[in-house]
Specification:
The protein is mainly β. The strands form three sheets. The protein has a six-stranded parallel β-sheet with strand order 1-4-7-10-13-16, with no helix packed on it. A six-stranded parallel β-sheet has the order 2-5-8-11-14-17, with no helix packed on it. It is globular, with a radius of gyration of 15 Å. It has strands at residues 13-16, 19-21, 26-29, 35-42, 46-48, 52-55, 66-73, 76-78, 92-95, 102-109, 112-114, 125-131, 136-143, 146-148, 158-164, 174-176, 181-183, 187-190. It starts with 12 loop residues before the first strand and ends with a strand. Helices cover 0% and strands 45% of the residues.
Length: 193
């Protein structure tokens, strides 16, 4: 366990001031059965010109992966799928996998999401949040971020897309703070699927 000056949580994986650029796939992508806890991404880490910034559980509705206690602070997600050419795209895909999958504790603060495109309008988004059937998503906080569409390549239509298809009667606990800013987008926060 590594020490961290920005959180009281232990950190097992620290990514600080790194550049994930022009990858054919995502900057970071976990497997459908990933068991990943205590991750801190911070200090100006940049995800740019990738097929997508971060994709959890391989974008699949299968596998029983577990994600817990991730923090992303002061990072940038810029022009991922900047040609609007793939079905991927977007900044962060925060989606549960198959039955038994869980995301418990995921915080995104003080970061910039701009011009993240895709051929699929649902993936032209800064952050996508999706809780699938028989899964758990809790402790998600999105605060102090900037979501914008600029003249740079890549068409970001939506800041945050939140939808819940768990057959529950409402959204899982997700906090979207008033300190986020949205500009030049088609939708600031959407529930479209």
């Amino acid at each position: 366990t590594l020490a961290t000056a920005t959180s009281d949580l232990p950190v097992d994986v620290a990514i600080s001031g790194s550049l994930f650029d022009s990858n054919v796939g995502a900057g970071i992508r976990t497997a459908t059965t990933a068991q990943v806890s205590n991750v801190a991404i911070n200090a100006g880490t940049v995800f740019s010109n990738n097929a997508a910034g971060i994709i959890l559980f391989g974008a699949s509705g299968s596998g029983n992966g577990q994600i817990s206690n991730w923090t992303i602070d002061s990072s940038q997600f810029l022009s991922n799928d900047n040609a609007d050419a793939s079905s991927f795209g977007g900044g962060i895909w925060l989606k549960t996998g198959g039955a038994g999958s869980a995301i418990n504790g995921f915080s995104v603060t003080n970061s910039i999401f701009a011009d993240n495109g895709s051929i699929n309008p649902l993936n032209q988004v800064g952050i996508t949040l999706r809780a699938r059937p028989n899964t758990t998503m809790s402790g998600v906080n999105i605060c102090g971020n900037t979501f914008e569409e600029t003249a740079a390549p890549g068409t970001q239509l939506t800041g945050i897309n939140v939808f819940d298809d768990t057959a529950n009667t409402g959204y899982q606990p997700i906090v979207v703070c008033s300190s986020n800013t949205f500009s030049g987008l088609g939708h600031s926060i959407s529930g479209l699927e």
